[in-house]
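User: I'm putting together notes for a lab meeting next week and I want to include a structural view of one of the chains we've been expressing. I don't have a solved structure, so I'd like a prediction I can at least talk through. The sequence is below, exactly as it appears in our construct file.
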Amino acid sequence: MIQPACSTAHTPARGYTLVEAMVTVALLAVMAGLAMPSYLHSLRKARRTDAAAAIAATTQAQELHRANSPRYASHFGPGGLERVAERSPEGHYLLDLTAANATGYQVTAVATGSQVDDSDCRYLRAAMDGTTGTLVYSSSANGRAWASGGADPCWPR
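Assistant: Thanks for the context. Below is the predicted structure for the 157-residue chain, given as structure tokens.
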């Protein structure tokens, strides 16, 4: 019987080379780098609902307080708004009550922690307009220049 001669032809290797793996990792890193800013923006935008919930709870508490008192509460805690915390439910905002009197008040949510990076919407405010009896919602990047109405992109709709 004749033995078959050993083949010297090279069969192609199966699998990936190190270069191919590194190119894949580099492409994934670039894609993640492009997607991350959009993801973080969406996350900050979603966290604004934390401020909206805290302000809504505060405005309800103010109306309850005003029903039993000649003026709106000027502070949180005993003698003021006792059942509302000064921090939003998820802790992304601190609340501040200002300009409280018999006809109106302002409640402002100030971003804290990682939410401070929400540079255009660091401050969210609801103000009770004493002349019309309506709440006016506004926002600010710096706490000084306030946008309100249809031009305000910060309040969830």
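A couple of points you could mention at the meeting. The helical segments are 18-67. The longest strand covers residues 105-111.

User: Perfect, that's what I needed.
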